[in-house]
Amino acid sequence: MSYDKVKQASKTIIGTKQAVKAIRAGQVKELFVALDADSWVTDPVIVLAKEVGVPVSLVESKKELGKACGIHVGAAIVAIAAS
């Protein structure tokens, strides 16, 4: 289900640094975090998202999350941009 949301999103923001920038700028509608990613990478972004009220969805796999975004590598964090 979550992967489908990412596939259907008109604009995705891939990666930790870009997601943090977008969250701080108020441009994120929802955040997706891969459970198999390192927690030291994902935890600060999850905390920031919760502080500003962005919903966080957990997905099983970095590889599948990357595939849902149309890239050939894994993605630990993907944000859907507010339209």
From TrEMBL:
- Membrane spanning stretches: none
Q: According to the UniProt entry, where is the signal peptide?
A: none
Give the CC-aspect GO terms. ribosome
Give all residue intervals belonging to the Ribosomal protein eL8/eL30/eS12/Gadd45 domain.
5-80
Q: What InterPro entries does the database record attribute to this sequence?
A: Ribosomal_eL30-like_sf, Ribosomal_eL8/eL30/eS12/Gad45
The UniProt keywords, alphabetically, are:
Ribonucleoprotein, Ribosomal protein
SUPFAM superfamilies given in the database record:
L30e-like
Know the name of this protein? LSU ribosomal protein L7AE
Organism, per UniProt? Ureibacillus xyleni
